[in-house]
Amino acid sequence: MSLRRKTILIVDDDEGMRDILTAILKRDHRVLRAFSGEAALQMMEKEDVDLLMLDVRLPGIGGFDVLRIVRENYPLVEVIMISAINEVETAVQAMKHGAYHYIAKDFDYDALRSLVMNAVERQDLHRQVMMLSAQVSDQSDREFVAGPSRATREVLELVAKVAKLSATVLILGESGTGKELLARLIHRHSANPDAPFVPINLAAIPRELIESTLFGHEKGSFTGAHRQQLGKFELAGGGTLFLDEIGDLRLDLQTKLLRAIQEGEIERVGGTKPIKTEFRLIAATNVDLERAVKEGTFREDLYYRINVVPVRLPPLRERIEDLPDLARFFLRRYTAKFHKHIQDVADSTLKLLQAYNWPGNIRELENLIERLVAVSESDWITDADLPLEMQFAHMEASGTESVLERALTAFERNFILRALERSGWNVTATARALGIPLSTLKFKMDRLDIREIARKLRGNT
Question: Residue 1 domain-assigned?
C-alpha cells in the first residue's frame, strides 16, 4: 500500500472525459488535468507526478510521443493509455513503448479504479526494488552483537527506549565500532521495521557526487545525467535514512540536509519543484562535532537538530568482556561462508585477544577471524594461529621479558602447539616427534601455559 496519496495527471483534450476521470479518481488520489501533451510535460516539470492517464490522440504532440518522452525522463511514472476505440494494434504499440496498460473510453468505472490501484502498487514495488538494490550489504547477515559488558547493556537499554520513536538519533563512536549495525538494530525495533533502511557512507562518496546521491537529479542537470535518478532521501521514504560519517558533509549540503529534516522536503539537482519526503534519520560520526562547530566546519543549527538522542558506542577496548561473544559470532559466520568445520576458539586464545588494544575495533576483530578461518586447516583456533603482535600484547602486559625474549617465547609456544596439533594433542607422541624427553615437554608446556589447551583440545578430538 502506498504511503502517500498518489498524484495522477489526466491528459485528454476532451473536457468531458477529464471530468469523468477526475470524478472516478479524486476520492483516492490527487488529480491534475492537462488538455494537451505540451501542457502535460510542462506540468510534470513542476509537479511530482506518479501516474499518467494519457489519451492516444491529442492536438499537437501525440500521445505516443508524450509516452516516449515520459519513459526517457521519468522512468518511475506509470502510464495508462486511453483511446476512443479498442484496437489491438494500438494496444500493442502502447505496451511496446512502455505503457503500463491500455484501455478504451467505454471502460467500467470499478475496473478503472482497480487498474489504477494496480499501477500504483507496481510503482511502489519498483521503488522498493530500487531501494533494495541500493543496499550493497545483505541485511540478514548483519546484526549488532550484544555481549555481557555493562557498556553494551547501557547502549541497548537506550535503544529500547527510543527505537519506536521518530526522534533523530546521533551515534557517536570510533571507526569500526559497529555504528551502522546499531542503526540497523534501531530500525528493526522501530514502529515500521518493514520499511526501507537506506545506509550511506558520506566519506566513501566522491564530493562531486554526494548531492546527486542524496537528493537525486533530473535528466540533463549535469554532464552524464542521462535520466532522472531518485536520491537516498526518496528511497528511504517512510523508513530510515542512515547517514554515516555525517561530519564529512560539505557545508552547502548541510544547509540542504537541515531543510530536509525541518521542512520534510527536498529538491533534486536540476529540479524546480520541492518533493515531500518523510523518513527517520539516524546519523553517525567519529568526529567531535562540538569542536567542528567551533572551527566552523559544521553548522551549529544542524548539530543541534541531529543531536536529539545521542548514543555513544564504546570502542572494543572499553567493552572487552564482549570479545568472546563477538569472536564466536564471526567464527560461525565465516566457517559457514568458507565451508569449514572449526569448532571454537580456545579459551587461552580469547585471553590473548582480550589483551590486545584493538585500534580498529570490531571491524579489525572481524577481519582477523575471517583471515584465521580462511587459512585454518584444524578444528580449533588456537594461540599459534594469532599474529605475533597479539601474542606480544599479552606478554607486554606481564612486563617480565625483553622484546627478543618475547619473540623467542612466542615462537617456542607456537612451535609446540603446532607439534601437538599434528600429533592429535597426544603429549607422548609429540615429545617423541620433537625428539625431547616427555618430562622436558611437560615442563615447557607448564611454563608456556599450554598444558590446559592440549588437555581440552585432546578431549574434543
Answer: no
